[in-house]
Design brief:
alpha+beta, 1 helix
Amino acid sequence: MSAGRHHFFKVACDLLLGLLLLSMSALSFGAGIVVRVVDRLNESYLGALSVSAYEKLADGSLVWRAKSDTDAEGLVRFDLEGLGAGRVYVFRTQPYGRWVYSDEIVETGAYRFYVGRLQIRVVDGSSGEGRANQVVVLRKWSADGNHTRVL
């Protein structure tokens, strides 16, 4: 075998070994997803938030699997067993004092987790001045006249 062919064969073997090790690593440690937590109102990235990953079982129950904090860019990475291979996950965080759950996640890759759906300002009806520290209850009314508390 010539020196050129020998070198080519060695490089090809190293590449195949690297791909095999990468595949085995993915099987051993689960499938990766990068989550970016984003404020829905102003599109800012939310850093220093604790995000938990839960597996959603067939009966609808949630089982905690992992927890990590977002970096300054709102990013957090999880390696979740079975993601992209039939298992379902949801993420949970508490950005503004209330727990928020993500959509159901079934694929690896990247996911934008939007939080902060409502921004309100309470004002005094006679003066128009803003009012701080007011209790606000949000209710959803149904066509039949009944309502449920939303916030």
